[in-house]
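Handout, section 3.2

Students often ask what a structure token actually looks like in practice. Rather than define it abstractly, here is a full record for DUF6113 family protein. The first block is the sequence as you would receive it.
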Amino acid sequence: MAFRPLPALLGTRAERLAEPLPSRGARVVAYVLLFLLGAVVSVFGAFVQTLWSPLGLLIAMVGTMAVFYGGLRVTGTKLGAGVPMAGWFIVLMVLLAPRAEGDLVLAAGVTSYLYLFLGAVGGVVCATLPTRSGFGFGAGPVEPRRPVRDGHA
């Protein structure tokens, strides 16, 4: 067997689709935790990308993408990537607002804009990857449609 560290971590499409879905209750708990984790990563990334520029941007993006992709893999649903992205985005909107003192957490700058843009694009990419379920809460795998022939199903 050949050594494949990255594909083994990400898995092939067939391997990902063959994994069993967690129970509905476990997924609901995971969604709540992923929302909170997305919010925490948002705060962490906002400060790290500014403090240690440009390496901080890389660290913040790796953490952000890990949460989005991890949510997808843990839950097996597209909602698993979308929920932490929602938490990440909501907190960033609060951090973008100027305070009464005039302070900003995310100031206008190249790294701040890259963090916002790359995080949003990465979240959308993770949310569009193939999953074990076509539905948000993972009602089950989607059966492929059979072609209709001669007007008969």
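Discussion prompt for tutorial groups: The radius of gyration is 19 Å. How would you have guessed this from the sequence alone?
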